[in-house]
Amino acid sequence: EHVATFRYSNATDAPIARIRAVADCGCYGVTLSDDELEPGGAGTLTVRFRTLGFSGRLTKHVSVVYETGARQSAKLALDMHVRAGVILEPGRMHFGEVLAGTKPDGSILAHFSDGIGHPFRIKAVATPRGDFERVKAVRHQDERDPRWKGWRVPFRFARPLEKGVYSKHAVIHTDSESHPRIRIPITATVVGKVWVRQPRIYLGMVPQGTERRTHTVVRAFDPSVELGKIEARTKGGLIEVTVAPLPGRPGQYRVEIRVPEKAPAGPIDEVVEVLTEVPGERVTEIQVKGRVFEKRGG
């Protein structure tokens, strides 16, 4: 974590009120000593930057918003070049959306900048038991900038993935005195051939006698998948559902979910079934939850 402090002052002849700072990234925090300044008054703005998995040159901007009768703002540029220590690129092993039944692979770099960082050796990589093939790090030097040297650490799943969210971590053990043990988050969103934007929908609290609508989108995982004829139905019948092509989006479908006015008070715990002609995935489920509550009073 790195800290920088800046001074700000009121150079006008009137009070300045409602001063606040807005960060453009969750990698740093901003605090202000004063949210109001009289003419000639001054305060300090403190930035705490967390390098996390960043590497190389970074430029961020803090927006300082204030009022002098009208709302105004100013921008403060933050510049940092992350080169010291053991640098991970990217900072986590994220596979993104992957198809269920596949064994995806990827890699990260664990390296240092020559002349600033120090050479290190990877002694072992511990992964979740049974999930990955044995990891063997290989030496790496960046062709674009030879100052960056280190290791490429490959990750390949040893078993086919099932639908859902995969979230675990690996640990890289090194002989670096400053970074002997590095924790690597490993994440993936595993989806089927029938892709649903929101497989779980929460409708919140719905007043009885009031209609509520929401929707999600269904499409093929990739162009090689043919959905065929598409229908949608509910298991419980408490809610209503329709499906239709999404205008201007070929191959995408809008699944509209509706709580009718006649819905009785009580919990909503429904399953919407999307029916397609995809072999092995003819039925894709969307979970819908919420509650219809009885309005009281006159």
Task: Give a short synopsis of this structure.
It contains no helices and 22 strands. It has strands spanning 2-9, 17-23, 28-32, 42-49, 56-67, 71-82, 87-89, 93-99, 105-113, 122-126, 138-141, 148-156, 164-174, 181-191, 194-196, 200-207, 212-220, 231-234, 240-245, 252-259, 266-275, 283-293.
Explain what you see.
With 298 residues, the protein is mainly beta. The protein has no helices and 22 strands. β11 (138-141) and β12 form a beta hairpin. The protein is flat. The model has no long low-confidence stretch (mean pLDDT 92).
Key traits:
298 residues, four-stranded antiparallel sheet, 57% strand, mainly beta, four-stranded mixed sheet
Secondary-structure blueprint of this entry?
Layout lengths: L1 E8 L7 E7 L4 E5 L9 E8 L6 E12 L3 E12 L4 E3 L3 E7 L5 E9 L8 E5 L11 E4 L6 E9 L7 E11 L6 E11 L2 E3 L3 E8 L4 E9 L10 E4 L5 E6 L6 E8 L6 E10 L7 E11 L5
Q: How many DSSP E strands?
A: 22
Q: Work out the radius of gyration.
A: 27 Å
- Class by SSE composition: mainly beta
Main sheet attributes: strand count, strand direction, barrel closure:
4 strands, antiparallel
Cα-to-Cα separation, first versus last residue: 57 Å
Strand content: over 45%
Helix content: under 10%
Mean pLDDT: 92
Shape assignment: flat
Low-confidence stretches: none
Number of helices: 0
Q: Oligomeric state of the chains?
A: single chain
Compressed to H and E, one letter per element, the order equals EEEEEEEEEEEEEEEEEEEEEE
Strand order of the largest sheet: 7-9-12-11
